[in-house]
Structure formats: structure tokens, C-alpha cells
Amino acid sequence: MELWTEYEGRTIDGAFPLTKLIRPEGRSAFFSTSDGVGGPTVIRLIESHFDDEEILVRWRGIQVLNHPNLVKLIQFGRVTLDETSLVYAVMEPVDANMGEIVAERRLTTEETKQIGTSLLMALEALHSNGFVHEHIEPANVLAVGEAIKLRSDCIRETPEGQEGRDLKSRDVHDYSVVLLQALTQSKTLEEAKRYMPLAAPFNEIVPKGMSGEWGLEEIHTALRPDTVQVGTRPVVTKATDAGIVAQTVVELPSYPTERVRVPVEAESRGIEGRRLAIGVGAMLLLAVVALFVHGRASKAGGAVQANAVVPAIATEGSEAAPAPALEAPAERGSVAAPASVAAPEASVPATPTTATNGAGQWRVVAFTYNREAQAQEKAASVAAKHPDLRPEVFTPNGRAPYLVTVGGTMSRDEAFALLKKRHAEGLPGDSYAQNYRR
């Protein structure tokens, strides 16, 4: 990879065109793209420095949390472009960010309460599930439809010991600064003196959160007296005529290091119910959204705003480590089988999911499907036209995705030799080689 601009016009996983470079940041860059159904959004590419699995597991954690106040990642995975291994994340479309608004005017106390409540819920979920954010600032507070969300592609695991406690405290400090900026357009208490004292409960939350005297638990008690926290794990509650309805934190499972990409399932539309469950008043929330929409309307229409999801943040792992060779690209989204190809009478048996020991477990993957029947149909179609390719259906984990591979199992050198040869002969351009040895 020479320049990020060289990737403009390319397509990731056959679904996400890199329309225009928005911002490069060291080994990371943001491009405008579509969300897979025609809507404009943003995709982030990160050059792999032997930490691609770690990044993908973090994003998988965001997917599993599925929190209404964290920006959803529509799809993420690993690809190879021009012999450079990359990971990518496609983010859900956003309408505006808080940074645009506070640059123009201060927010009201009620508007700030809505933003503060949304960010508090997001931070409690992150901290309770082993993550820290480290990039809490107005530009990362986003309006998505009727919800206020925190950017989620830049999280990391919480380190152990004192370092982890310090990073959590830093998140609380930055959260408090965001509230101060919302109310005063100032980043320090000294700059905001003319607006003092702040309205309750921010007269306590802001200074005590910035000083480290208060953590999330104390802020929760001050900002959301209608809810409680049980032990060290937050429980969101809402009083009803029938009593108390609680929503508990999601437990994160562990993931094998071989996992590279899991497409995000279609989001359920129960946002209103979840919003009620976290005690956010609909009328006040609509007021905040109107504010964001107003801010966005002042921008030029039709283009994806770079600062809507791409603030200036510290780059991850900026050390100049060499990118790995074409190691393990991600499985791609499913490709619809051509309507003209009839289903074969005898299906091609799927290769067992557990590979035998030995070095020669590399495969060349030509097609990926979410349905086994489609994969079998494609394998039969390829076999009829190119029997020398020896296509077969392979599943790494016993379920979707179902991969159509060619050439059987082989060594790494054999796999890349076949890949290079068959690319020249018409193998799909996004075919890749991967080692599936366990």
C-alpha cells in the first residue's frame, strides 16, 4: 500500500465501494461508502500489523453487546488489497455529531441530560464487559435516527491492574468534559467560569467527574435517580405500575483466534422498547435529535460528512511493523447463486470442519455463501465447467459461512501459486488463500 487514495474506486467484499477517502490516520483510513442497501455511510480500513485478530474480536464484542447507545458495525472482516492485509468495519449511517452543534451554541440542561444519559449507558456497558473507550469527545457523540450513540470502532480491552483502573477513570473524566462542553462550549472549568454554577445535577457531576472524585456509579445516582445499580454491575430499571422492569448487562463469550468476520444480523426494530427500558424520555430525546438534524442541515447536502463519524483520534498501533503476507483474509458475504444454474442432483459433500494435523492445510476460497445449498450448487457449476479445479464445499466451523474452495488442501506456497495462476485464468478477483489448520 503506497497511498490510501489508491484504494478509491475499489470495492470491499463485493458490497462496499470505497467512494472517496475522507481522512487518513497513519495505518488507518476512512472512506465514504454505501451501507449495502444504497445509503451513504463510512468504512474504516486498518492495515494489519499482526493484531488483526485482536481488532476483530473487539468489534465482535460490540456486535454481541448490541447496545442501543453504541454505533452499530454493519459488517466487519479481513480483506487483502494489492498484497496488503487489512481489516475493515462498516458503520451504521449517522445524521450528525455533537461537535457540530457545540461549535455553534450551548445545549440546554435538558438536552445535556439526554446526551449524558445515553453516554452513561454506553460507558457502563463497555466498562462492565471489559472494554474502555479512550476517545470520548463531542465529535464521537453521534445522532442516529432518534438515538444518541457513542462511536464504537475505537474501543479496546481494559488492561489489568492499575492501568485498567486509570483508563476507566480517564473515560469518566472525558465524559464529564463532554458534558461541560455541551453546557458551556468550554473544555476547562476555568474557561467556563462565567457559566458557573452549572445547573443541577451537573454542578456536581462535572467537577467531581473531572477530578476523579466520582466514578460511573456516583454519576449514575446523580443523573438517574429513578434507576439503581446492583453491586458492581449496572442494572437499568424503570418504574411501572406493575413494579420494576430490569435490563441486565450482556455477558460476552470468548472467541477463537481463527474467527475473522461475522456479518451483523439484521437489526431488530425494537429501539423504542429499549429506549423506554433505559429510562430516556421520548419527548426530550426527540428534541435532541431535532437539534442534531438542524446542525446537519447547515452542512452541504448529499455528501457523507467526514466529522460525522471520523474525528481526529490517536491512531492504533502506529509502530512501523511490516504488514503480514497474504495470511488470512476474512470470509466474505454470501453471493446469490445464478438463477440459471440448476441445483445438482447429487450434492458435493462438505469437507469436515476439523482439519488433520500437518502444514498443508491451506485452501483457496473462491466463493462464500450463507446457505449450504447455494454453495453446493455453485461447486457443481464450477466442477461442470472446470473439473481440474476440484471444487468442494468447506465449512470452518460446522455452520455458515459455506466456502467453495478449489484445489483441495495444500501448502502455503502451493496455495498462492494456484491463486496467482487462476487469477490470471479468470478466478474471481476477491478469491483468497487461508490456512485452516487447527
UniProtKB/TrEMBL annotation:
Keywords: Membrane, Transmembrane, Transmembrane helix. InterPro entries: Kinase-like_dom_sf (IPR011009), Prot_kinase_dom (IPR000719), SPOR-like_dom (IPR007730). Residues 356-438 form the SPOR domain. The chain crosses the membrane at residues 276-293. One of its GO terms (molecular function) is protein kinase activity. The keyword Transmembrane helix applies. It comes from the Bacteria. Residues 19-403 form the Protein kinase domain. Pfam families: Pkinase, SPOR. This is SPOR domain-containing protein. It comes from Tunturiibacter psychrotolerans. The lineage of its organism: Bacteria, Pseudomonadati, Acidobacteriota, Terriglobia, Terriglobales.
